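If you are new to this repository, start here. Below is one unmodified record pulled from the training split, so you can see the exact layout before writing a loader.
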Amino acid sequence: MRMLRAVPVTVMLGFVLAGCAAVGSAGPGGPAGGGGEVGGPAPLRGFGIDVDEAVAPRVPVVHLRVCGSWGCHEQDVPVHISGPVSAMPCPSGPAADPDTACAAVQLPGPGPGHGYAPVPQLTAEPVTVTVTTPPGAPLVIAAEVQVRPAMVCPGGRTGTAPATAAPATADCAGGAPQAGLRIAADGTVTQSR
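And here is the target side for that same chain:
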């Protein structure tokens, strides 16, 4: 079985953030956020979290506290390790091409960690984010970061590419504020996007 190059989960997370839409739509400005008519599904509102491969196994979950002018939002965010990916062969038969993969499977193994924290109240205004690990965690993290979310517009440049970040003041119908956090090998936390 041949191995596929591992697709960075950051790229996959970008596709998820760009391609997920609220369930149920009342059109633009409707109760569910709508947005389907403005160039693609509405992006999610919240934070992507990337953990360095060197420490990802020691950070199974982080606690996020996000505070802005709208108040505070707290949640535990599971961190999933993105190991190598392998191609699954197609069923055999006279027309089966041995170099064609019919599916991909994620294998256990080392890799960076990734998580996503939806924050429904998030705006494009600066927020204070506190990131901690639970008591007894293999790696202690206790960091406070000032973060400026960016508006992410639906559809990206071509309508099928990952969402593109735009300044918070940009006119971005159906867009949503997002930001990324990176946890480095030494446990420091920074804004990554």
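Two things worth knowing about this chain: The two ends are 36 Å apart (CA to CA). The longest strand covers residues 61-68.
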